[in-house]
Specification:
Number of helices: 2
Strand content: 5-15%
Largest sheet: 2 strands, antiparallel
Distance between the termini: 22 Å
Radius of gyration: 18 Å
Structural class: mainly alpha
Shape: elongated
Strand order of the largest sheet: 1-2
Length: 111
C-alpha cells in the first residue's frame, strides 16, 4: 500500500508526482509507453543518486566546505533519497504482486 492505493494487479506507482505532490499511478501490464517512460526515468534517477553519493563523499572529505555548500548538498541528497524511495516502493510493490500467494494474507507473519 502506498499513498492510499494498493499496488500490484496492474497498478504502478510512477517516479513523478502531480504538481501538488500527490502520487501518480498507471494501470496496465507494464509494457505500455508510460511504463517504459517510467522505467527510463527511474534509471536516470538511480544513476543520478549514484553520482550524488560520489559528489557527497568528495565534498565531505574537504575540510574547507562551507555551510552553504553543505546545505545545498543536504537539499540535493534529500531530493534524491525521496526519488530512490519512490523507486524502491514501486519496484517492491510490483515484486510483491508477482510473488503473492492468493491464499496468504500479506499482513500476517507466517513464521
Amino acid at each position: 500500500m502506498s499513498g492510499g492505493r494498493c499496488e500490484g494487479d496492474g497498478i504502478r506507482l510512477l517516479p513523478w508526482t502531480e504538481q501538488g505532490g500527490k502520487p501518480c499511478y498507471v494501470i496496465g501490464d507494464g509494457t505500455g509507453y508510460v511504463s517504459r517512460m517510467a522505467d527510463g526515468i527511474e534509471g536516470v534517477q538511480l544513476g543520478m543518486a549514484g553520482d550524488l553519493i560520489g559528489h557527497a563523499t568528495s565534498l565531505l572529505a574537504d575540510r574547507k566546505v562551507t555551510r552553504v555548500e553543505l546545505h545545498f548538498l543536504a537539499s540535493r541528497l534529500t531530493e534524491s533519497l525521496r526519488e530512490v524511495k519512490r523507486v524502491a516502493e514501486s519496484r517492491g510493490s510490483r515484486l510483491g504482486a508477482r510473488g503473492r500467494d492468493p491464499g496468504v494474507d500479506p499482513g500476517v507473519d507466517t513464521r
